[in-house]
Specification:
DNA polymerase, domain 1, TIM Barrel, 2 domains, two-stranded parallel ribbon, globular, binds iron/sulfur cluster
Length: 358
């Protein structure tokens, strides 16, 4: 028996066509879409202005299921907290809620694991996983919006959780189109390790989210040391692709830079980074490394004085920079930690290699 189609998996034209087979007249289709995208419901029963028989027909053909919230951490000092969610096939993923004054960001995962293998990242440590479907990404957005009761006008989204979004391009684009129903593209940021064909494909889209690039070292050699995939997409070619990327007025590329003590945090590294991005409409987001028992022991978070020196040097070299000092928000360095703890716990209790995702 084939599984019912999750309506949140469908791009707008396919959604219209699928609904038209079951729902009429046209204004009822609009009502269903409104329940989905303005309210983010995960059940047809919630659609109180849709006749009962139509809801029954919809439920017979389709589903609206979201990932299930398993746990959420206590809020960090800055109010942010992580969510662990279970997918229908048992995979676990993480999302993060980040209140920021009048704005709130939700950090979404795009894959259940990651094949990119950045050595500073717990998700990379545990290896590849499958691509998430649009419903699983849209579902993270609404599940957390509902849990935290965030007004839609405050919402921002960052694709900065588990996975490399540009290696799940088609599903991410469908998800972006769904998110655009409520959020302007400038309120959505996609963070990539630098998958050049994906950046070029993103550049060709009519509507584009903000782009963030995980750079993490000012030169090719050190970048390849901690981000092996960059051997395939070298720094020089990446910078050329960024210089070609079309930016709307007032928008910047965000350069993410995970600070590792003694590796990439010296003032001369800041000078080299400033040179690397010279002429680019860019701002740097410096992210002090978040230590984790699964990651190499030599990787340490720099002390506050070293962070200050690095940031001050960037500023003196004309670079706009923000630094994420609060642990709750060290997303790029910390993604996958909650799930990683669960996998490690499962391995310890079973005495053998069992991935708790299953
Ligand atoms: S930092 Fe991002 S791209 Fe790199 S391994 Fe982790 S999830 Fe993948």
């Amino acid at each position: 028996m084939t599984e019912p189609v999750n309506l949140y998996d469908l791009a707008a034209p396919q959604l219209e066509a699928a609904l038209a087979e079951v729902v009429s007249p046209v204004f009822r289709i609009r009502q269903v879409e409104e329940w989905m995208y303005a309210r983010g419901v995960d059940s047809f029963d919630a659609m109180s202005n849709i006749p009962k028989e139509t809801r029954a027909k919809l439920a017979a053909h389709f589903t609206l299921a979201f990932p299930e919230v398993l746990t959420r951490t206590e809020p960090a000092p800055d109010g942010s907290r992580k969510y662990l969610l279970r997918l229908a096939d048992g995979n676990r993923i993480e999302s993060v809620y980040m209140p920021m004054g009048e704005r709130t960001s939700i950090c979404l995962s795009s894959q259940a694991g990651c094949a990119v293998g950045c050595t500073f990242c717990v998700t990379g440590f545990f290896g590849a996983g499958r691509n998430l479907t649009p419903a699983e990404m849209v579902g993270q957005f609404y599940a957390i919006q509902h849990e935290e009761q965030i007004p839609m006008e405050q919402m921002n989204v960052v694709f900065m959780g588990m996975g490399e979004p540009l290696l799940n391009f088609e599903h991410v684009v469908t998800t972006l189109d769904a998110l655009y129903r409520n959020l302007a593209p400038r309120r959505i940021t996609l963070s990539t390790s630098g998958i050049i064909p994906g950046i070029e494909a993103l550049a060709r889209l009519e509507r584009r989210p903000n782009l963030a690039i995980s750079i993490n070292a000012p030169d090719r050699k050190r970048r390849e040391q901690i981000m092996p995939i960059t051997a395939k997409y070298p720094l020089e070619r990446l910078m050329a692709a960024l210089r070609r990327f079309p930016l709307e007025r007032g928008r910047d590329v965000t350069i993410e830079y995970v600070l590792l003590a003694g590796f990439n945090d010296a003032p001369q590294d800041a000078v080299a980074l400033a040179r690397l991005i010279d002429g680019l409409h860019a701002k740097v987001n410096a992210i002090p490394f978040n230590e984790d028992a699964n990651l190499p022991g030599w990787m340490k978070r720099p002390g506050d004085a070293a962070i200050d020196r690095f940031v001050d040097t960037l500023v003196r070299n004309g670079v706009r920079v923000t630094v994420r000092r609060s642990k709750g928000r060290d997303i790029a360095a910390a993604c996958g930690q909650l799930r990683g703890k669960e996998i490690a716990k499962s391995r310890a209790t079973n005495g053998r290699e069992v991935d708790a995702r299953r």
